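Give me the fold.
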Amino acid sequence: MAADEPLDNLLKVNEGYFISEGVVDRIIEKYPKLEQIFENAIKVKSGYYMNDYTTVELANYIQNTKNENVRLQALSNQLNNSLQEEREAVQLLINEKDNVIELQQEQIANLKELYRNKDPDVFEKVGWAAGGAGIAAVLILLSNI
């Protein structure tokens, strides 16, 4: 007899129910807390005679167990959803980290290029000198005319 099974398979015996000892043993094995409920039942030769109070106690325990299972399942679902949202947020952070690294690598490459081109090379210096000498020659030429 599982916890979610109704109490339909009990035999009605004058304002109470009779449950065989084997069924009670399986119930107690599966739900040790119920042993106390069966202590309130009357032991007869081949099983237990449960009065209405004990039967209601058992039914309440079963209902409380079902309610607790529903609550725990809802909590489990909520935690799973939170975990999934956190995983998605972490993945977005990883993607952004990769983007930042790529941008930093581009900046490093640009700075290296600027550093290499910071000082003019020899050919540029010769060009400037030739350009300066050419202008001076033109000015001298114009002044002599």
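The chain has a mean pLDDT of 76.
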